[in-house]
Amino acid sequence: xxxxxxxxxxxxxxxxxxxxxxxxxxxxxxxxxxxxxxxxxxxxxxxxxxxxxxxxxxxxxxxxxxxxxxxxxxxxxxxxxxxxxxxxxxxxxxxxxxxxxxxxxxxxxxxxxxxxxxxxxxxxxxxxxxxxxxxxxxxxxxxxxxxxxxxxxxxxxxxxxxxxxxxxxxxxxxxxxxxxxxxxxxxxxxxxxxxxxxxxxxxxxxxxxxxxxxxxxxxxxxxxxxxxxxxxxxxxxxxxxxxxxxxxxxxxxxxxxxxxxxxxxxxxxxxxxxxxxxxxxxxxxxxxxxxxxxxxxxxxxxxxxxxxxxxxxxxxxxxxxxxxxxxxxxxxxxxxxxxxxxxxxxxxxxxxxxxxxxxxxxxxxxxxxxxxxxxxxxxxxxxxxxxxxxxxxxxxxxxxxxxxxxxxxxxxxxxxxxxxxxxxxxxxxxxxxxxxxxxxxxxxxxxxxxxxxxxxxxxxxxxxxxxxxxxxxxxxxxxxxxxxxxxxxxxxxxxxxxxxxxxxxxxxxxxxxxxxxxxxxxxxxxxxxxxxxxxxxxxxxxxxxxxxxxxxxxxxxxxxxxxxxxxxxxxxxxxxxxxxxxxxxxxxxxxxxxxxxxxxxxxxxxxxxxxxxxxxxx
Length: 618
Hints:
There is one protein chain. The chain is of the alpha/beta class and 618 residues long. The strands form 2 sheets. Strands 6-7-8-3-9-10 form a 6-stranded mixed sheet, sandwiched between helices. A 4-stranded antiparallel sheet has the order 2-1-4-5, with helices on one face. The chain folds into 4 domains: 2-217 and 263-344, Up-down Bundle (ABC transporter transmembrane region fold); 220-260, no CATH class; 366-443 and 526-617, 3-Layer(aba) Sandwich (Rossmann fold); 456-525, no CATH class. It has helices at residues 2-25, 27-59, 64-113, 116-119, 122-138, 142-166, 186-216, 218-231, 241-247, 249-261, 268-297, 304-344, 407-414, 437-441, 458-463, 470-479, 510-524, 540-554, 589-594, 599-617, and strands at 366-374, 384-392, 396-401, 422-427, 430-431, 444-447, 528-532, 558-563, 574-579, 582-587.
C-alpha cells in the first residue's frame, strides 16, 4: 500500500512538473482553462437547480408570475453561460494550438543549448524522437498534462457541487408504511452508494486498460509513425520524383507504409475495452435514474426534485469516474514524461571558460594541436590519434586525405564543437577550454560540407540576421562569385530562397547555394575562415577556381581548406596529409611531391592519372 501511494505521489509530481514547464510558455492559458473548467462543472447544476424549481411549480401552485420569472431566469442564465463559455472555449482553443507548438518549441529550445556532442549523439536524438512521436500519436507527454489538469479540476468541482446539491437525496425518507420503505434503510443506501462507486471505478479502469494496450504498443507505434512520416510524404519530395518514376519506388513505399503503419489488427482489443467503459457508464446512469424515480414515486420528494437529484447524482458519479480516469491517465503519462525529463535534464558538461578571447587588431593568433587524440561518444574507435600541428593567422593551410581520414573531425575540434579525448588545443599558448565558449566560436567562420540555408530572403541568409547590412551583403556575394540574376531574383537581395514559405521564392542550384554559404562566412569577418569540402559536388576545375579566388579574398586571415582533391590546394602555404586519423605528412605542394614514397605523392598521381585518362578519352 505504501509503495502504491509513493508511486501515485511520484506520478503526480511528474505531471505537475510537466504542467509547470507548459505554464512558462502560455501562462494565460491556465487562467482561461481554469475558468472554463469552473463554468463547465458548475453551469449544469445552476440549470438543474432552477429547472427543478420550475417543474415543482408546474406540479404545484402553477403561479403564472413565478413560472414566467423562473423561465426568464433559465433563459438569462443559459444565455450568459453560453456566451461566457463560448468566449472561454475560443480563447482556450487558441492557446491550445499555441501549446501544441510550444511542446515542439520546448524540445528545440533545449536542443539549442545542448552541448554539440549531445546534439550529435544517438542518445539525445533517440530521446527527442520518442518525445515527438509520443506527442504525435497519442498527445502523450507535456501536452497531456494540460488535458489531465482540465479533467482533474472539472471532475473535482463536479463532485463537490454534486454532493452539495444531491446529498439530501439520501436523507429524504420514503413515508412510513410504504412498500418501498426499504429504500430508507442505511444498509440499502450504503449498498447503492457502494455499487455506484464501484461502477464509477470500473468504468475508468476499462478505459485505462484500453490506454495501456496502446501504451504497450508504444515502440511499435513510434516505428509506425516514423514509417508514416517518411513513406507517406515521399511523393511530395521533388528531388525523389525522377527516381520514383524510373524505378517504381512508390511500390516499395506503399509496402513498408502498410507493414509498419497499419495497426488495425492490434486495435480491436482496445476498442472492446473502450466499448465496455461506455456500457458501464450507461449502467451507472440507469441505476441513478431508477433509484431517484423510485423514491419520488414512493413520496420521498416532489417531481421537481427528480431533475435536481438525477442531475446531481449523475454528475457526481461521472465526476468520480472522470477523476479516476485522470489519475489513471496521470500514471500512464508519467512513463512518457520520464523520457521528456531525461531529455530536458541532459546536463551541459563542456566547460564554458571565463577568459575573454583577445580582440587583436593585428589578428595575431597562433593555434597549436598538442598530442591530440579523439574518439566520438558511443564509439571505441579513435578518429584522431596523436595529432601535433601549429599554424598562425595569415597562413593558408590545406588539410587533405581520403574520406574518413579525420579531416572534418580536426575542424570540429578546432572550433570546439568537441573537446579532445586526449591532449589539448592551444590558442596563443592557452588551452581553448579556458576561453569563454561563445567568444571563442566568434573567431571562426566555417562553411561545412553539409551547410544549410534557410527559406528566408537572400540578404538574411548571408548576414545571419534580421537586420542585414545591404551593401556589405552585396559585396560579400560579389567576392564569393555569386551573380545576382535580376530576371530570376526579381526582388534583388530581398528575394526569398526556396518555396517552402514564400510561393514566389526561387529555387537555387547547388553551386549558387555554395557561393551564398561562402558569402555568409565572409560576412561574419572572423579571423579564421574554414572551408570543409563545401564544393565537393563541383568538378575539380570549378572547385579549384573557387578556392583560388577565395584565397585572394581572405587577405590576412587564416584560411583552412579541407579537400580530398589535392589539385584544389596547391596554392596553400602548408598542406597537412591525414591518413587513418593521423597527420602523416606536412609541407608545401612541391615539398610533398618530392617524397615519392609518401601518401601525398601516391594520391596526387592517382588523381592526376584519372584526369589524364579523361583528357585522353575526350
